[in-house]
Amino acid sequence: TVAIEFVGYSRDIRNSHFGALKVKDAIVDQFRKACGLRPSIDLERPDLRVHTRLDRDRVQLSLDLAGQSLHRRGYRSGTGPAPLKENLAAAILLRAGWPSVATMGGTLMDPMCGTGTLPIEAAWIAGDCAPGLLRDYFGFSGWQGHVPKLWGRLREEALARREEGIAKLPEIIGCDMNPRAVQQAKAHAERAGLHQVVRFEQRAISKTPKLPNPAGLVVVNPPYGQRLGEITELGGLYAELGQVLKRNFQGWKAAVFTGNPQLGHALGLRALLDNKLYNGPIECRLLRFEVEEGYFTPDRIKPPSIENATSEAKVADSDSSGTEMLANRLRKNRRILGRWARRANIACYRLYDADLPEYALAVDLYQGEQLWVHVQEYQAPRSIDQDKARHRREEALVTIADVLEIPPEQVFLKVRHRQKGHSQYEKIEQGGAFCEVREGPCRLLVNFANYLDTGL
């Protein structure tokens, strides 16, 4: 079986689906001419996946070694509202000095662990676990040069090293105030073979306990305003995190990963090192601290009261359910509708239309040189709490971008509400750029920002 991925265009080939068909025909016709058999097409797990990149009159063909993105370790089934990719989590831990801390027997604590990516990656690093060990499919499996017996021996060696490494793990703890996220973290740890060595607890950050020696590493990926909340609303959270560090973790190392370094000032700690990393298209900073009194700075923002934190946690907990169902529905629809769209040579179609009552959205895909997503929210009735509706909308947008593996700037949101006369056709924004999308042999310019509807 084969599959063809195609990107780019030229004067004669303007549609990526048409280009993929031409490459596929050329390859399978050669097979039929050489051996009398025509390979079948398998878009999910082919024996051979060919990537084609066209730039004017030059074509580059590549064989897919991996099969799917290597950041997918195989233990995650669902994600929270702002998921951190596994490979980025591993990079954060390596930069933060976790391997040397683990060698000395130091503890790792993540007080805002979400669905557990940082603690699990920390356990795999300290436990000498190969990151692709849970995967049962690689692109090279169908290559003629692949030697299954040799690969089997390498896997057995990796399994033995993992078993030996896990037995020597230091204490690794993840906490989060969201009970659903904690349950997902526990499920992920079980799939990763770590459920007996990595501990997850439900607790607010203000309740983070003081841990006994030896000192270790506190690593945390708090929200930073790009996805889950505005910067002005997050200063108190960062101040509270700083208070917890100074109260319970003196003598420890700390690493805070944020897309808004100015929020780091609210921690009340002076960073010794500052590393630039990217979370998708978002430029972020890994702020690294020694939690020692000599590095304390005056508190700039008063942390919120415990009562307020508790009430906010209850709202967040109640609103966060359903993202996994939404992600599963989007994947299912894309798999089914994607086949129909490819057969019909259609590049723009509706992926989701309020399929789940909790997420009253219409999600449209527009394929050009890149994928754009146009999301329309059906306005919630007045009986629905507006803060809950906003939180659920933010969850849905992050889930959509994560499932489709696109940066947030390629997702456009509109809110549909009852209108009269011609008001629905009036501009809602000025200066939106036109993006080229394709339908069969046609190239169309679509403006996602200026009007409620795109007109396509």
UniProtKB/TrEMBL annotation:
InterPro entries given in the database record: 23SrRNA_methyltr_KL, DNA_methylase_N6_adenine_CS, RlmKL-like_Mtase, RlmKL-like_Mtase_CS, SAM-dependent_MTases_sf, THUMP_dom
Enumerate the Pfam families for this protein: THUMP, UPF0020
What PROSITE patterns has UniProt attached to this entry? N6_MTASE, THUMP, UPF0020
- The question of whether Transmembrane helix is a record keyword is answered with no
For this protein, the record's CDD domains field holds: THUMP_AdoMetMT
**Keyword Methyltransferase included in the entry's annotation:** yes
Instruction: Name the keywords, alphabetized.
Output: Methyltransferase, Transferase
Cellular component, GO, one term: cytoplasm
Q: Which GO terms describe its molecular function?
A: RNA binding; rRNA (guanine-N2-)-methyltransferase activity; rRNA (guanine-N7-)-methyltransferase activity
Ranges where the THUMP domain occurs: 1-65
Protein name, UniProt field: THUMP domain-containing protein
**Whose protein is this, by species?**
marine metagenome
| UniProt lineage | unclassified sequences, metagenomes, ecological metagenomes
